[in-house]
């Protein structure tokens, strides 16, 4: 309770509000998209957490935050959208106090992807950086962190993503039957590809934690 946390690529602030509600953390989210910054503020206000959660418009490769001023940095399945993940890790290290922790989940690749696959993942879901577990670890160490854990979650991700895809396809079918827009086609095609790649273990997900000495 009271710990100061930064949420990289905070989106609409769901994880930030969870940390504030469940643990009493004070969370500063960083989000590049202005509409999501505004949406996060409104949602936090509606649930009475605007005193503990703020989402700032900013770039995680150039954090608008002071040095050595936070206890933890988190991110949930979002760093794949960042063009220079190593730079984001350097910035996370800068804003953490000594002894502070970075903890995040992210997409990983286990086998090389075809250029057409990478292009579709970019077109549909803005997947800018797709790297393996070892490369994540290397970039964290280059930024000055000591690795605490790097856990491959691909097996469980495959099950969860399969359920999500079935739910999404059901909703998409209902929208089409009702004559309403069914969603962005590139997103749908890229999501189908992503789920297939994870279930075939060409891609997956991992959880990382590291400490600033």
What does this structure look like?
The chain is an alpha/beta fold and 213 residues long. It contains seven helices and seven strands. It has helices spanning 14-23, 34-46, 85-95, 115-125, 133-142, 154-177, 185-199; strands spanning 4-8, 26-31, 53-57, 70-76, 96-109, 146-152, 203-211. A seven-stranded mixed beta sheet has the order 3-2-1-4-5-7-6, sandwiched between helices. Helix 3 (85-95) crosses helix 5 (133-142), helix 4 crosses helix 7 and helix 6 runs antiparallel to helix 7. The longest helix has 24 residues, at 154-177. It is globular, with a radius of gyration of 18 Å. The two termini are 22 Å apart.
Determine the mean pLDDT: 97
Query: Termini separation (Å)?
Result: 22 Å
How many distinct helices?
Answer: 7
- Radius of gyration, in angstroms, nearest whole number: 18 Å
* Low-confidence residue ranges: none
3D shape? globular
Class inferred from helices and paired strands: alpha/beta
Portion of residues within helices: 40-55%
Write down how many β-strands occur, each being a DSSP E stretch of 2 or more residues: 7
């Amino acid at each position: 309770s009271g710990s100061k946390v930064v949420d990289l690529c905070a989106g609409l602030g769901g994880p930030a509000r969870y940390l504030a509600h469940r643990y009493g953390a004070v969370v500063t989210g960083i989000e590049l998209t202005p509409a999501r910054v505004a949406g996060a503020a409104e949602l936090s206000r509606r649930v009475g957490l605007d005193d503990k959660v703020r989402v700032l418009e900013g770039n995680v490769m150039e954090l608008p935050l002071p040095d050595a001023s936070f206890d933890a940095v988190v991110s949930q399945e979002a760093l794949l959208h960042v063009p220079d993940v190593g730079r984001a890790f350097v910035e996370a290290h800068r804003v953490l106090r000594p002894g502070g922790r970075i903890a995040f989940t992210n997409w990983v690749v286990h086998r090389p992807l075809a250029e057409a696959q990478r292009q579709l993942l970019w077109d549909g879901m803005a997947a800018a950086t797709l790297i393996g577990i070892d490369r994540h670890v290397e970039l964290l160490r280059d930024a000055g962190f000591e690795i605490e854990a790097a856990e491959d979650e691909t097996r469980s991700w495959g099950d969860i993503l399969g359920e999500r895809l079935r739910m999404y396809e059901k909703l998409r079918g209902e929208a089409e039957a009702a004559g309403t827009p069914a969603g962005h086609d590139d997103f749908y095609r890229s999501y189908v590809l992503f789920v297939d790649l994870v279930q075939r273990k060409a891609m997956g997900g991992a959880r990382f934690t590291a400490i600033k000495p």
